[in-house]
Specification:
Low-confidence stretches: none
CATH architecture of the largest domain: 3-Layer(aba) Sandwich
Distance between the termini: 30 Å
Mean pLDDT: 95
Number of domains: 3
Oligomer: single chain
Helix content: 25-40%
Strand order of the largest sheet: 9-8-10-11-13-12-18
CATH class of the largest domain: Alpha Beta
Number of helices: 20
Radius of gyration: 26 Å
Strand content: 15-25%
């Protein structure tokens, strides 16, 4: 029995690839296995080559793998495109009408088993049967997926699965089961965007504004799906400019607010971000990165917007930027983003990307019993007899009241203003206001999520990573360690502000430091050099639209002469 397997489903958009992938992934999770998925899709509704990969295993899995153990080809093009990723031991599952490329092929008589309407269900059943998954687990996962549809359609799909399982038993092909998990623990199957949405809900989000833009759209869609239970409002705006300004208006009125977008949409929001800095209005902004410039590759992944988010908005004002590297961090760092935004009255950013947005993993249920919604200013907020909104406070955080809750006048203005909120051109006061706002940076640094160091002292190779590269870099370190190499990783899940004295010694002690990131110019390596004067000369970069994998890192190490 196998400890791990990598299944890739390939075909055209519109063939139900995601349906097969999600039901199969859920069946793995309910069977007790760890999973990591990877979705690759073109920016078209129908046609084009799409894939859904599921890596599943008994031990914890944190990233994708390139080599394929089982290829499920829904069209002949998939056979040709992935022929080099399979080996003689791999299994290919395909329609019997296709020309085989592998001697180890399961030829499925799709037309004999079911009508064309259920082709993807036939493929699902054949794959699950070949993996030795229990039919009852697969049926339950299918029922949950199609539960909102007519009962007749669910029954027909289940009957198709049973027919496929019967056919497989008679095919003579041996199943390739994973080693069974004795007592599967209850876990959730979530992707990064869903976890961000749930983290926002747990923090008490009350308003979300967005304009649809891949790969961020499933964040507001998840909020919409839970809006009736939570009472939050989600507004699809006419454009991204309206979305950020709606969120600022809602936040000013007392509703913790979130905006989700991608690079091109965020470009339109930058004036609004600057408005948040001047008016000291808290807001959480998720920027789900994809390759640019312009429309670029709208459905692929990249880490190319770090510098953009760090400097977006004219003028100088403080901000925090989180870059979660796992599903759990998507949840917890979103909560932290809301807490910091409300406490310091600044915009806080969550920087993710297409890979992490669409990555499904099995995670233990979040412990929410002791989580409390963020505190909002209200009627009981102590203020002096005269409310001074922008009082020059030592911490930089001035008192904040919500309009309409008490007799105090709540003033806001986008121009430079006096302590009471009215426009001013008093230039000495202007300098004091700038300094007041910037003093919030101290609070942000004191509450920064520090980088995670894993490995021994004085490593031979130290990988520096940030955001979605976390899982694969940790696996790369494990691979090197198993081969007797002294390797370590310093991973950043918050990329601004940085606290150099907490991590610089790790960089200085390592013999070789390599920065791993998904962009062409080494943006994070450049940020580290700017903030610490430490120059990371060696880099592993990927910017072809695909995520970094452990195989990619291994190949890059060989090119660097460090394999």
């Amino acid at each position: 029995m196998q400890e791990e397997i990598n299944v890739l489903i390939g075909g055209e958009a519109g063939q139900g690839i995601v349906t097969i992938g999600l039901i199969l992934a859920k069946s793995f999770v309910r069977s007790g296995y760890s999973i990591a998925t990877q979705q690759v899709y073109e920016s078209r509704i129908r046609g084009g080559h799409n894939t859904f990969a599921i890596r599943a295993g008994v031990e914890t899995i944190t990233g994708p793998r390139e080599s394929i153990d089982i290829l499920v080809a829904l069209n002949e093009e998939s056979l040709r495109l992935h022929e080099e990723e399979i080996n003689s031991g791999s299994l290919v599952i395909q329609d019997e009408a296709f020309n085989a490329i592998n001697s180890n092929t399961l030829k499925v008589p799709y037309k004999d088993i079911a009508s064309s309407k259920y082709i993807n269900t036939v493929a699902l059943g054949a794959t699950a049967a070949a993996l030795g998954l229990k039919l009852e687990i697969l049926e339950t996962a299918l029922e949950d997926y199609f539960g909102h549809k007519k009962e007749e359609a669910v029954d027909e799909n289940i009957q198709t699965l049973r027919t496929v399982y019967d056919w497989f038993q008679k095919s003579g092909m041996e199943a390739r089961p994973l080693k069974p998990v004795a007592e599967p623990s209850p876990r959730m199957m979530l992707n990064g965007n869903e976890a961000i949405a749930l983290g926002a809900i747990s923090a008490g989000v009350r308003f979300c504004a967005f304009y649809p833009m891949t790969p961020s759209t499933s964040i507001p869609l998840t909020l919409i799906a839970n809006s009736s239970e939570t009472g939050l409002v989600v507004e699809q705006a006419e454009d991204e400019i309206a979305a950020i300004n709606m969120a600022l208006g809602a936040s000013y009125a007392g509703a913790p607010s979130i905006v989700a977008t991608s690079g091109g949409g965020f470009a339109l929001m930058t004036e609004g971000i600057s408005l948040a800095g001047m008016t000291e209005t808290p807001v959480v902004v998720v920027v789900a990165q994809r390759p640019g410039p312009a429309t670029g590759l709208p459905t692929r992944t990249e880490q190319g917007d770090l510098n953009f988010v760090l400097h977006a908005g004219h003028g100088e004002f403080p901000r925090a930027v989180f870059a979660p590297g796992s599903i759990e961090e998507c949840f917890h760092l979103t909560r932290k983003a809301f807490e910091l935004a409300e406490y310091t009255q600044v915009p806080v950013f969550i920087l993710t990307d297409q890979y992490l947005a669409d990555l499904y993993q099995a995670v233990p249920p979040f412990d929410i019993d002791n989580l409390q919604p963020i505190k909002m200013p209200g009627k009981d907020t102590p203020v002096s007899e005269k409310y001074i909104r922008y009082k020059i406070a030592p911490s930089g955080v001035s008192p904040r009241l919500l309009p309409g809750l008490r007799k105090n006048l709540v003033v806001v203005d986008s121009d430079e203003h006096s302590e009471d909120g009215h426009i001013t051109e008093n230039l000495p006061l202007r300098a004091l206001m700038v300094e007041k706002r910037l003093r919030k940076g101290t609070i942000l640094r004191e509450n920064a999520a520090l980088p995670d160091y894993t490995g021994g002292d004085d490593p031979e190779i130290l990988f520096v990573s940030w955001g979605s590269t976390k899982g694969v870099v940790f696996e790369a370190v494990s691979d090197l360690t198993r081969h007797g190499r002294n390797a370590a990783v310093l991973h950043f899940s918050q990329v601004w502000p940085l606290v150099p004295d907490k991590f610089l010694p790790y960089l200085e002690r390592a013999k070789q430091v390599i920065c791993v990131e998904g962009n062409a110019t080494g943006q994070f390596a450049g940020l580290l050099r700017r903030e610490t004067s430490f120059n990371i000369e060696k880099r592993i970069s990927r910017y072809d639209g695909l995520p970094i994998t452990r195989e990619y890192i291994a190949g890059a190490l060989q090119s660097l002469g460090l394999a």
